[in-house]
Fold:
Amino acid sequence: MHIHILGICGTFMGGIAAIAKSDGHRVTGSDQAIYPPMNEQLQKLGIEIIEGFDLHQLKLKPDLIVIGNIMSRGMPIIEEILNNSIPFISGPAWLSNYVLKDRHVIAIAGTHGKTTTASLAAWILEDAGLDPGFLIGGVPTNFDTTARLGSGKFFVIEADEYDTSFFDKRAKFIHYNPQTLVINNLEFDHADIYKDMDAILWQFHQLLRFLPSNAQIVSNGSSEEIEIKRLFAMGCWTPILSYSSDESDNVDWKISSNENLSIDFFSEKKKYKGSKFNLLGTHNLENAAAAILAAKSIGIDIQSSLNSLVKFNGVKRRLELIGSSGGVELYDDFAHHPTAVRRTLLTLKSISKGRIIAVIEPRSNTMKMGTHQGELIDAIKLTDLCWLFKPPELVWDPADYLSENFRVVISEDTESIVKDVVDNAKPEDKIVIMSNGSFDGIHQSILNALRSNEK
Structure:
């Protein structure tokens, strides 16, 4: 089958392209923003990519067009497809129909930690020799790709609640029919799609209504996860395994680590000890607990999972150390929500002898709309110095939320940010760049400038 993908360079659609190609299909695609690393990954697979959404590409006469959720009514190519009854399908529906229908699906859902937890789960299955398929919204460093078909029974997927397509406003995860469902946490996000938290809970409630009673839910049971408790109160027909990193919580399993980063994983009846876990922060302990219990649901022994975690090397752009110079360390973090910003900063503070310097781009639609502006400002109070980039499309003014004694610089120019950050950096400082985009290449610019100063 010849499949043509509109919006092929997004992480999710690019993953579908890679899976379709490995399944023997001819795959082409197009996008309006073609840039590394996804275009390079697809080109290595021999997938032809067309820039833009010109009608001329329809002359390829594909058997099926897979439409990404960046496409909308009114776009000439969409109107042409509809007017001429050209066969089309959404990405999640294609995945469900052609890949997932005969697999045991392990779906990782929630506001934060999906990419890391999915990467951890996929690695545990891989290390157990199960050759899982997976589709992950980031780059797990234990693998050389973000997605693969796999030859085994199991498929791990990052299951987000963003809408499916212009013709299907249900959350993408509705299509996956998981037999194991992880819910890491729930907060309000995607303000461009959902008007409030209740709208998000409604989508998750539809997912629970799809789950068989012989499936397994793995859920964060922390007392702070109020929205998860609200969700389950709406109706749940599937058994739940709960976890927490707080010893005071009443859950099935608890996880902790000591100063040597060695994991303890325990229930009322049994305790397991693991070796060093390379990911820092309480949130990553919770991600690990979720992955361990997801693996347990398919028969993998807990001690085996703990042994696998020792060999897990992390995920790119999740508090990734990208370089150091003159005693200054530079980190890249994907933080797209105030809670993620806060957790990352707390983690850095726990390991730092020097100052924490943050450079933040409020790039997600929710952040640009100003939905969480107060929470963001509260989170960055954890920094010693902070530069907040103000893109033209930001609809709120950060200056309205800053007090005179709060050290935050607001800038509309990345070049000036690079100069200021490097001029102010001192040995033992940790600089973290926070953005879910490329941020005009500021990561490498700061690292180059630090190294130039050192010379």
Observations:
- Residues 148 and 155 are 9 Å apart (CA to CA).
